[in-house]
Every structure is written in C-alpha cells, then in structure tokens.
Amino acid sequence: MWFSRQQFAVAAELKQWGVEPRFEPGDVVARGFADLGYEEFQVLPSAKLLSLTAGTVSALPTDHANHFFWIPSIDEITELLERRGVPCVSCKRIDQRDWLVEAQLGDELESHRHTSLHQAMLLTLCGVLRKVYKKG
User: Are residues 43 and 62 in the same domain?
Assistant: First the structure.
C-alpha cells in the first residue's frame, strides 16, 4: 500500500469538494470498501486498472467509475491550488520530523502540519476547498 488510511480518507473527501477522479494513464485512484478499507489502483492505458494491493490488472468498470476517487500527487495538488488562485507560499521541514505547508487563500493562511509531505498537501487542499465551498 502506498498511502495511509488518513491519506485515503482525505483524498476521498476531496471528491465532495469537486475534485473528481481522473482515469488518465499514470493516475492513482482508489475506492473504499465498507468492510475492507481502501484499495488503490494505478491507471493503465486502454482503461485498465492495476491493483496496487493484489497486483491484478482489470478493465475499468465504467458503471462503477463514480465509486472511485483520485489521489493527486504533490505536483497535481499544487496545480489544483494554483488553478483556484491559491498559491502554496511555504513548504518547510520542521525539526526534521514534520512538514508544514501553507497556502494563501485571500487574506487567510491555510496551513497544515504532518509527518508526510503528501498528507500535509492533501490536508491543505482539502482545507482550502472546504473554505471556498462554505464561502460560495
């Protein structure tokens, strides 16, 4: 498994704030199962999915596509923030343990600290999207 349960949960929440799953080759998507947790997949060409849990390749079931959520990379999170006019103004290592990520949302600073840079970025994006949704 590449991601923690926390990362899966935050990435899944992004969907409710408008971050729809992408199924382009190279993307990582996941889906939750009530009794099993999450399963992650690497999107392959020709609408195929490689299970990063089981190692199996299967066709993307188009009627189940809405059950998946996208797990954007750090670069993709940065792009998603910038497209919304929210620059990532700081990304620093704190005490060689945690990452602190700060994004400028209007006159507010959205900041999150976590041991994983990817998790700190996901939390920052989620926090920004949540605030934008509540204001809008």
Answer: yes
Long-range own/partner contacts, residues 82-85 (CB < 8 A, 24 or more apart): 84/128, 84/129, 84/132
Residue 8, pLDDT above cutoff 70: yes
Report yes or no: 70 and 23 within 8 Å, Cβ to Cβ: no
Provide the CATH number for the domain around residue 16.
2.30.30
Same domain membership, residue 114 and residue 129: yes
CATH of the domain at 110: 3.30.160.20
Question: Is the pLDDT confidence value at 92 over 60?
Answer: yes
Q: Which residue reads 């969907």 in tokens?
A: 15
